């Protein structure tokens, strides 16, 4: 039996359709015991995205960005968020979009990139699936200053940190972004062994 066999959508109401689409859906769910239960959920749909951790194996460094994330501030994080560069797919392939995001946000034009996995970041309310990549970088690959697109409200600082420092930043709470933690831990386990 598939999920489609166990769910019957009864009503979908659009609550907001600005930056993203927020809907309220009422559906019936067939529970494991066979009984149908009516449930209502709000769903935030802004599309899928991609993220990438550039690393330099010889220097044992990674390139990250620091920027304002208003929802994190609203939830008590009174600092700029340190994270891996990322962006929405905007109807493009993850590989094409993450290359463009890397140039916009960090100023690096990368060579070979490698997809390592996909993950739903907050599947209880957000539809977004994130495509995770890693790529080696060299200082000579920096073709611009990065910083993002001011027209999109981006004001991004590019930072380079050693892997050890970045891992320490997770431990002491300076890095609290989930995608960045996942990428740095992947790098520690699989790249910088």
List the topology elements.
Layout: H1 3-6, E1 7-17, E2 21-30, E3 36-45, E4 49-56, E5 61-67, H2 70-74, E6 81-83, E7 85-88, H3 94-106, E8 114-120, E9 129-136, E10 157-162, H4 163-171, H5 178-190
Parallel strand pairs: 4-9
Antiparallel strand pairs: 1-2, 2-3, 4-5, 4-7, 5-6, 5-10, 8-9
What is the overall pLDDT average? 96
Number of helices: 5
Structural class: alpha+beta
Total strand segments: 10
> Which percent bin holds the helix content?
10-25%
Q: What would the principal axes of the Cα set say about the shape? A: elongated
Strand residue percentage: 35-45%
Indicate the low-confidence ranges by residue numbers.
none
Report Rg: 19 Å
User: What's the N-to-C terminus distance?
Assistant: 43 Å
Structure description:
This protein starts with a helix and ends with a helix. The model has no long low-confidence stretch (mean pLDDT 96). The protein has five helices and ten strands; from the N terminus they run αβββββαββαβββαα. The strands form two sheets. Strands 4, 5, 6, 7, 8, 9 and 10 form a seven-stranded mixed β-sheet that branches. The protein has helices at 3-6, 70-74, 94-106, 163-171, 178-190; strands at residues 7-17, 21-30, 36-45, 49-56, 61-67, 81-83, 85-88, 114-120, 129-136, 157-162. It has 193 residues and is an alpha+beta fold. The chain is elongated. A hairpin with a 5-residue loop joins β2 (21-30) and β3.
């Amino acid at each position: 039996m598939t999920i489609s066999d166990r769910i019957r959508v009864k009503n979908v109401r659009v609550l907001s359709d600005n930056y993203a689409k927020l809907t309220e859906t009422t559906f019936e769910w067939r529970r494991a015991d066979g009984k149908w239960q009516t449930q209502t959920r709000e769903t935030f749909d802004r599309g899928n995205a991609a993220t990438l951790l550039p690393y330099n194996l010889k220097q044992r460094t990674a390139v990250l960005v620091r920027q304002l994330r208003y929802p994190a501030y609203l939830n008590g994080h009174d600092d700029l968020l340190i994270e891996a560069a990322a962006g929405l797919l905007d109807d493009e392939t993850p590989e094409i979009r993450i290359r463009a995001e890397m140039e916009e946000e960090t100023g690096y034009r990368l060579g070979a990139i490698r997809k390592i996995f996909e993950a739903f970041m907050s599947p209880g309310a957000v539809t977004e699936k994130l495509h995770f990549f890693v790529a080696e970088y060299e200082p000579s690959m920096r073709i611009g200053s990065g910083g993002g697109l001011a027209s999109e409200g981006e004001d991004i600082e590019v930072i380079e940190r050693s892997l050890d420092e970045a891992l320490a930043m997770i431990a002491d709470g300076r890095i609290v972004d989930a995608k960045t933690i996942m990428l740095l831990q992947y790098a520690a386990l699989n790249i910088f062994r």
